[in-house]
Amino acid sequence: MNILVVDDVESIRDVVVAILKHAGFRVSVAQDGEMAWDALCADQFDLMITDHDMPRLTGVDLLRRVRASSLDLPVILMSGSIPYEETDLAELLRPGMAMGKPFSFAELLGNVRNVLSDRAHAEPSSEELVLQGGLSEL
Questions:
Q1: How would DSSP label each residue in 6-45?
Q2: Who's near 50: CB < 8 A, 6+ residues apart?
Q3: Whole-number pLDDT of residue 121
Q4: How far apart are CA 6 and CA 13, in angstroms?
Q5: Are 16 and 7 in contact (CB under 8 A)?
Q6: CB–CB of 65/89 below 8 Å?
Q7: Fold of 2-136
């Protein structure tokens, strides 16, 4: 699993990366939303974990850009001040979730695993696709 971590605070970014790498994930980093968008256009990721309050492009604005594109990517939005005034935030986060800062190592890993697990259950397996294709031809 390849995860993109986006945060403008280096110390937070480094801790999140260390936790994820220790758990066996491949991790790439971006320092802000614009750099994250460039990374998303250049590589394929299974999950993006992004801070909200960043220069150049906020986490919510990055999330809007992702949802407006053809990218089908679960996102965990983390922030000390989640923008609850965003009326479309819940819809934007599907698939994904919001997570407040500070958080524990266990909370981070639990949320990552839950989002990835939900994602795996939502996608039909190749066997299901073959069966669906075969049934439609009957």
A1: E-S-HHHHHHHHHHHHHTT-EEEEESSHHHHHHHHHHS--
A2: 4, 5, 6, 7, 33, 36, 59, 62, 63, 75, 76, 77, 78
A3: 62
A4: 7
A5: yes
A6: no
A7: Rossmann fold (3.40.50)
**pLDDT at residue 132 is higher than 50:** no
Summarize pLDDT for 80-103 with one digit per residue, the tens.
876 555 556 777 777 888 888 889
Q: What is the pLDDT of residue 125?
A: 43
Domain ranges of the chain: 2-136
Structure tokens at 43: 């590589």
For residue 137, what is the DSSP state? T
The DSSP string of 55-93 is SSS-HHHHHHHHHHSS----EEEEESS--TT-TTHHHHT
pLDDT average, residue stretch 72-82 = 86
Q: Which two tokens stand for residue 81?
A: 């001040």
